[in-house]
Amino acid sequence: MAWTRQILRVNLTEGTCIAEPLNMDWANQYLGQRGLATRYLVEEVDPKVDALAPENKMIMATGPLTGTMASTGGRYSVITKSPLTGAVACSNSGGFFGAELKNAGWDMIIFEGKAASPMYLHIENESATLVDASDLWGKSCWETDELLHAKHQDPQIRVACVGRSAESGCLYSAIINDLHRAAGRSGVGTVMASKNLKAVSVRGTLGVGNIKDPARFMKSVKAGKKVLAENPVTGEGLPALGTQVLMNVINEVGAMPTRNMQEVQFEGASKISGEAMLEPRASDGKPNLTRNGGCFACTIACGRISTIDREHFSVKDKPQYWGNSGGLEYEAAWALGSDTGVDDLDALTYVNFICNEDGMDPISFGATVAAAMELYEKGVITTQHTGGMELKFGSAEALCWAVEQSATGEGFGADINLGSRRLCEKYGRPELSMTVKGQEFPAYDPRGIQGMGLTYATSNRGACHLRGYTVSSEILGVPEKTDPLTTDGKAGLVKAFQDATAAVDSAGLCIFTTFAWSLDDISPQIDAACDGDWSPERLVEVGERVWQLERDFNMKAGMTGADDTLPDRLLKDAAKTGPASGKVCELGNMLPEYYQLRGWSADGNLTAETRSKFGLPS
Amino acid sequence: MIYLVVGSGPAGVVAAERLRKLDPLANISLIGSEPEPPYSRMAIPYYLTDKIQEHGTYLRKTAMHFEKLNIQLVQQTVTSIDTEFNRLITDDGETRRYDKLLLATGSRPVVPPVPGIDAPGVHNCWTLEDAREIIKLAKPGASVVLMGAGFIGCIVLESLALRDVRLTVVEMENRMVPRMMNDISGNMIKRWCEEKGVSVHTSTRAESIEALDAGKLRVNMSNGQSVDADLVISATGVKPNIEYLAESGVYTDQGIVVNDYLQTSNEDIYAAGDVCQGKDFNTGEYTVQAIQPTAVEHARVAAANMVRGHRTEHVGNLNMNVLDTIGLVSASFGQWMGVPGGDSAELVNEKEYKYLNLQFKDDVLVGGSSLGLTQHVGVIRGLIQSETKLGSWKERLQKDPLKVMEAYLACSQSQVATA
Amino acid sequence: MQKSLSIDPGKCTGCLQCEMACSLENEGVFNTAKSRIKVFTFHEEGKFVPYTCTQCDEAWCMHACPVDAIVVNAATGSKDVISDLCVGCKVCTIACPFGTVNYNADSGKVVKCDLCGGDPQCVDACPTDAITYVDANATGLDKMRQWAEKTDNTVGS
Q: Does residue A521 form part of some domain?
């Protein structure tokens, strides 16, 4: 069990909220969260639908372990068709919202249609109500969170909402929950806003029971926590430095994309690293990092809680940003810093705050600004477009200006909010967009980490590190070390990571556990909680089924094997410095083998045999 | 040493136990007028709803509790006290000598001056015997009129509602629980009751009660309406039991007046509980509080002073109360109505029946009242009684009064440095 | 030697493992809303403060109980609610100046920390040792004790 077996269907057009039983056949095939919600999406949404049309649906889904004591078991995902990529979107978030939703008795919420005017959904256990949100429209995520808490006068409610960026149509808008946790990527927030849905507030006090074998579950949960505590990455590195533990490491191996991925090492990396966040600053002697914080049930606690130097130009006159809030994670620090060439830690923290406050994905935002900066330096974008701002690489001032523009979509913000691909197309230089399937890259240059090239090219949601994090193996040696500069065996490695990740995402757990946990650690927890057999082998099978289902959706949406590629810059322009010097990403060496392992045709289509093997819907 | 404790409610029982602890060899008697073992009136509402049996109302549950402590239980009614010879006289004509006497004779319901109030079928809800009678008459579907929506009225109301009777409440004041709740929250409780099917008449008095046929009663109200009832419960207030002191020379006012050692005007006589007019923590005035925590506190302090001399000063009790009105929990603390020149914070959520009111003097909390909140409410007492300086947290509480637990943690535990 | 809970907010990451362990032990379900220990978040300050009953010597709740439903556990020193005896009158919830006795509307009874009978599950669950169960004399509970004394109505009793 562990599922509540109940889903909430919210029709925004009709204004109805209806409970229905969870399809347990699908739960047995797809486990929960990412996989299960994708199954619903595939069933209910035409893959060719306009992502921002009322016909698209948006699903907020928990996993069977969400809301339990399994370490990191507090997650939810947002599944929809992405307006940024046109592919299936699945954005995963921590914080406390997902667990609260589960505690209210819901495995998932399916939103369909579009409200005539702004609404928010308020859930208190079995009661779900759509409420007028005209007073919230035009407010930031932070204001919305505060207003909803004030309105319901319950400090314990958890809020997921969209900010002004999403309202203005920014294509990479996130859904922000608990002030600084995000279902970040692929513009899921844009879809939410397109439905005139401003926020979801939840209070759940029913608890999460339905554990198949509570004693065995607690035994495996405790064993799992012990493994995390004793692992150097999850037990020491991540709590101390967060994901920012990677900044110096990745820079040293020459896989740090810099200045719109023109280079693979950033000279300012150490200034914006996790280590730098611990250094006392000159003004007040306090470090950027106040402490680490955990999401619901997480015993790793990689979250950063930071302050900005009050004397920094970005906040000098804005005391509302002087308190603590969500600090820089590695991907954000990279996109906002290395990719734009900015090495000003306080500026990056400020921009990160604003991304949280108004709901932008900092990866896509930073990478789009990086593209705009390259266009500016190449003379394509000028101060006439920017209203006078000199959009140069390395300019903290330009970066802070850009984030304020993006937050509201005003002025040049409307261009930034297109995302890198559409921006570069608009200015006639599509080759300068560092994207796959329209989504901006994260923080690992595939010239220095070859497996990541295949991960990006084949990711079902466009360029993304969280669909198959071979950095674990290629750089950190988990579960075993492979050479980042070769392509041998990478097809199998990428597939294995992709399948395992899909299973972990579908369980309600955080992918960061897999720095320490193998499926042998995870499977006993799921198996003790959920009805059915959840052996490691079965989880791999479920993971692969999820992957195939997502792929199938994308192909039906009109994608082809030709979309499984990388920008020429990564395939043709060799890295100039570092260990990967002289290397390009040898995607062509890996892709055919990968297709074969996946059971796809040479042009990347699912074969009939594969479809039937995984029981995919027709 | 002979200690007599008169009154076997919470104050009497706690005092007798405390006396025993402090003076293992003394002769201790606990004199009560009711035929039951010492029980708690607080528990009667739960007895009415069958949540507990009679045994569940007993103050002490262990068999032979008082015997084991060598405390003699006496069922007698004290009629007067002879302070010259340190003895009291009981209704059977006996006298009992004491070295030290504690008066914990409690209070009793007032009888409102309403014609027909003595008709059969009109009951108080005060003693176990009252409760037994009410249980007999308050059958499901019966019509019950409750006179008075004060604390006791409301707590009875809860039990009556749970017995599925048709309920009508008549209250003189303009709102329910007027001594605990202000206009806003008192009327929220009224609305809550009405939503639960209770007919509530505020700013209304019962003018007369007529006995009809077959044991039925008719209550005529000042608003011109009348209600026929199977049972009328009178809960219009209580007053201290002090009449037996008339000739004693022990000084009484509203209740028995005591000093800061809970000693009465007679040096060998102390008082505690509902009958005692003791010091109020907030105001420093001497008032009858008639609440359980105060009764227990009085008893402990009085007993200590009776045994060891005046080493334990009574610094005053915080007036506070908590009430459950058909599932809506309310609480009040100290000067919940505010103080001159003070500030306040208020949160009103009519729709969800939530209310919180905090009252400050400078940056110190001096009172508060809440509705619909059940978590961490005690900390309001803690903040008031420790007179904690709230500093910048006062402003934060004025913005969001629900942060009261956070304010306490930040101000009292020094665990939260300010940003 | 009696032991007590020692809480070091500096180590707390706000993960709520303690709240879940507590609710599992006492309610048989993962439900932070029913935990007897509560983590308070100070967002601006970047602090998390777990808080529960300190099993104070004054035992306000116990003395305020009209039906003798709160007793001292001789083995652990905790003040335990005897659920069968509790009538749900809530007087203890206003008497406790720490706000750590709370009413549970579902059961109609009050709940408070009972140290899980000597094996506190929050301690076991805490990943950072922010909550430990140590000899009472070594807990640094002094601050809380001082607070308790400030709240005490009596001097020298």
A: no
The answer to whether B380 and B368 have CB atoms below 8 angstroms apart is yes
Any idea which residue has 């600004």 for tokens? Answer: A369
Helix ranges restricted to H, A231-361: 238-241, 246-252, 330-333, 345-358
| Separation between Cα atoms, residue B101 and residue C118, nearest integer Å | 42
At A352, list the tokens.
Answer: 């990160």
Instruction: Inform me whether the pLDDT recorded for C20 exceeds 60.
Output: yes
Q: Grade residue C156 by pLDDT with cuts at 50, 70 and 90.
A: very low
Residues B47-69 pLDDT 10s = 888 889 999 999 998 889 999 99
Checking B134-137 for CB contacts under 8 A at 24+ apart, the result is B134/B48, B134/B231, B134/B233, B135/B48, B137/B230, B137/B231
Q: Alpha-carbon distance A227 to B6, whole Å? A: 65
Residue that finishes a domain, picked among A410, A439, A468: A439
Set out the domains of chain B in order of their start, with CATH numbers. 2-107+239-306 (3.50.50.60), 122-234 (3.50.50.60), 327-418 (3.30.390.30)
**Closest chain A CA to residue C13:** A293
Which domains are present in chain C? 3-151 (3.30.70.20)
Query: Would A107 be classed as within a structural domain?
Result: yes
Same domain, A82 and A115: yes
CB contact under 8 A, A322 and B400: no
3-state secondary structure of B312: coil
Same domain as A482, residue A365: no
CA distance B372 to B188: 10
Smallest CA-to-CA distance from A143 within A356, A402, A410 is with A356
Contact between A172 and A190 under an 8 Å Cβ cutoff? The reply is: yes
The pLDDT value recorded for residue B131 is 87
For residue A70, what is the DSSP state?
S
| Nearest residue in chain B measured CA to CA from C9 | B415
**C17/A contact by beta carbon, under 8 A:** yes
The CATH number of residue A266's host domain is 1.10.569.10
CATH code, A88: 3.60.9.10
* Residue B413 scores a pLDDT above 70: no
- B6/B41 Cα distance (integer angstroms): 17
Q: Å from A32 to nearest chain C CA?
A: 19
Give the Å distances, CA to CA, from A383 to A391, A401, A421, A575.
8, 13, 21, 31
- Is A345 found in the same domain as A306? yes
- pTM summary value: 0.93
> Across the interface, do A155 and B403 touch by the CB < 8 Å criterion?
yes
Residues 20-59 in C contacting A (C-alpha not used; CB under 8 Å): 20-21, 23-24, 27-34, 43-48
Q: Which position has the token pair 């549970």? A: C104
Whether residue C127 and residue A291 make contact (CB cut-off 8 A), yes or no, is no
Q: Which helix (H) or strand (E) holds A457?
A: helix A450-458
Across A380-397, average pLDDT: 98
Q: Which of B62, B396, B416 to mutate to test the interface with C (most CBs of C within 10 A)?
A: B416
Residue B51 at interface with chain C, using a CB cutoff of 8 Å:
yes
Nearest to C87 among B43, B322, B386 (CB): B43
Residue in B399, B402, B403, B415 to test binding to A, most A beta-carbons within 10 Å: B402
* Mean pLDDT for all residues in chain A: 97
Containing domain of residue A506, as a range? 446-515+535-613
Q: Do C49 and B409 touch (CB under 8 A)?
A: yes
Q: Do C29 and A103 touch (CB under 8 A)?
A: no
C32 close contact with B: CB closer than 8 A: no
Query: Does residue A584 fall inside a structural domain?
Result: yes
Q: Are residues A26 and A135 in the same domain?
A: yes
The angle subtended at Cα B269 by Cα B308 and Cα B36, nearest 5°, is 100
Closest residue on chain B to C44 (Cα): B419
